[in-house]
Amino acid sequence: MGDRSQLCSVWLGSETGILKGVSLSRKQAFNFCNTSHLSRDQEVRALCWGDPAETELLVGSVDGTVKTFSTEKGAFTETRCCGDPAEGCFTGLAVLSGSALVTCGECGTLRVWKEDSSDPVIELDAGKNVCRMRQSPVHQHKVATGGKENGLKIWDLERPEEPVFTAKNLRDDWLDLRRPHWVRDMAFIPDSDKVVTCTGYHQVHVFDPSSPQKRPVLEAEYSEYPLTALSLPAAGNTVVVGNTHGQIALLDLRKGVVRGCLKGLAGGVRALQCHPSQPVVASCGLDRFLRIHSLEDRKLQHRVYLKSRLNCVLLASRDLEDGGGDVQGEGATQEVKEEEEEDEVWDSMEQVEDNRQKRKTAEEEEPQKKKGKRKKGQD
């Protein structure tokens, strides 16, 4: 299994608890799990790299455990209990220098765990109904949290007594009614102190902690459906957002306008990640497909069917392999082929008008004919 795992450049977590790896160069997908103990309690909710060399992968499950997967050995090497299922699922995982682990659950409890300790060394309350926790890629000791009726907060884990930034709610609408807020995902904008968020009310906000204004410095909207995930491309100045109807778009962070849309999805988006050096974005969600889109021409470069509904995606920092076309996982070739054949059959069918419409038109014409006959008889 070690040979297979070293080939994989894309990793995904599924609802069934299976860690999936995809090799774009070999056009193959692999499952990594202990099938004898597989259950819904092991549903994967969070993924992150355990070390800078990307030899370890941390997998956060619904049952509150964090498993360590070795990409060199192709097997799970350690399991740690870092939460209680009653506290909700993991909304984020991160690693600090010195092998410390940062976890956050839906209940809002944010903890820091040392490698040699079973008790957290730091524990703080980020508020209820947390939907996401993200770590700053530049300052690892800074994390951001947010959720439903729980505004954006930025925490410094070196001074965890209180957040270093707490966003204010949006201004009241034109009827002087309070506007609800629901942070679904966020990201730290590189080369600045700004943070971009997306909401369950199809909004994109940019916050600047260095300014005295604690409300968004930029507000934009996309489509009419809840946004679920976002990611920042390496080029900067844009953000990629996805929603519950499988729509993905690039928004300009300077003007708040849509720069383009990515097509091909058929289900709600659950995770997005842009490659750190290449102009591509990986997406996954309810339609069980991993897709790799180019951010330059917005074309679909790779597609893989993985049989399970997917919750999270993680890209390796090395360059993705060249090559395009559909990528099919082990045992998935037949399903994808049948799906494409079915689409061709439906496209080749002739369109038939609804019988109810024909019946209506016939019923409307009959009284007119009867009136015409009566007029002739009267004459």
Structure description:
The chain has 379 residues and is mostly beta strands. The chain has a single domain (2-340), classed as YVTN repeat-like/Quinoprotein amine dehydrogenase (Methylamine Dehydrogenase, Chain H), CATH 2.130.10. It contains 3 helices and 29 strands. It has helices at residues 2-7, 333-348, 355-378; strands spanning 10-14, 19-23, 28-32, 44-49, 56-61, 65-70, 75-81, 90-96, 100-105, 109-113, 122-125, 130-135, 142-147, 150-156, 165-166, 183-188, 195-199, 203-207, 218-221, 227-231, 238-243, 248-252, 258-262, 269-274, 280-285, 289-294, 300-305, 310-315, 325-328. The protein has a 5-stranded mixed sheet with strand order 24-25-26-27-29, with helices on one face. Residues 330-343 have low confidence and may be disordered.
Set out the fold topology.
Blueprint: H1 2-7, E1 10-14, E2 19-23, E3 28-32, E4 44-49, E5 56-61, E6 65-70, E7 75-81, E8 90-96, E9 100-105, E10 109-113, E11 122-125, E12 130-135, E13 142-147, E14 150-156, E15 165-166, E16 183-188, E17 195-199, E18 203-207, E19 218-221, E20 227-231, E21 238-243, E22 248-252, E23 258-262, E24 269-274, E25 280-285, E26 289-294, E27 300-305, E28 310-315, E29 325-328, H2 333-348, H3 355-378
Parallel strand pairs: 27-29
Antiparallel strand pairs: 1-2, 1-28, 2-3, 4-5, 5-6, 6-7, 8-9, 9-10, 10-11, 12-13, 13-14, 14-15, 16-17, 17-18, 18-19, 20-21, 21-22, 22-23, 24-25, 25-26, 26-27
